[in-house]
Amino acid sequence: MSEALEPLVDKYIKLRDAKAKATRQFKDKMAGVDAVLTRMEGTLLQKLNELGIESARAVSGTAYKSTRVSATVADWDQTLEFIKENGEWQMLERRVSKDAVQQYREVHDDLPPGVNWREEIVVNVRRS
Questions:
Q1: What is the pLDDT of residue 1?
Q2: 42-63, pLDDT tens digit by residue?
Q3: What global pTM score does this model have?
Q4: How far is residue 89 CA from its own chain's centroid?
Q5: What is the per-residue pLDDT for 91?
Q6: Phi, psi of 121 (to 5 degrees)
Q7: Among candidates 91, 120, 93, 121, which has minimal Cα distance to 105?
Q8: Between the CA atoms of 71, 75, 76 and 78, what dihedral angle is there, to the nearest 10 degrees?
Q9: Are 128 and 59 in contact (CB under 8 A)?
Q10: Is the pLDDT of residue 29 over 80?
Q11: Are 72 and 112 in contact (CB under 8 A)?
Q12: Based on the number of CB atoms within 10 Å of its own CB, is 78 exposed (0-12), middle (13-18) or buried (19 or more)?
């Protein structure tokens, strides 16, 4: 390698390694923060439920409940066959469309074959 490039390559590798180390440290630190936030969300949800309320306003912000919905495929072959047979192409993405599955569920009071449905009440906090 050219002597002129040696220090540049060396410096680049050292900086890349330092960046990777800092990224790992940040991710490790944020994992701890995320764990604390998750526990706090659970506590807030529990308190809202105990009080029988949907939201609570504080000086710094508002904690409120919302429903998080997901539709996942348990069996792609079965679901794809259903979509093809029934022309329900609006359900098809690389995943099933949550909105299309929800509409189907509302109309048919059932889920398409091979699709899972999950709803959970979660708590959100927004700044004042």
A1: 59
A2: 999 999 999 999 999 999 999 9
A3: 0.63
A4: 24
A5: 92
A6: -85, 125
A7: 91
A8: -110
A9: yes
A10: yes
A11: no
A12: middle
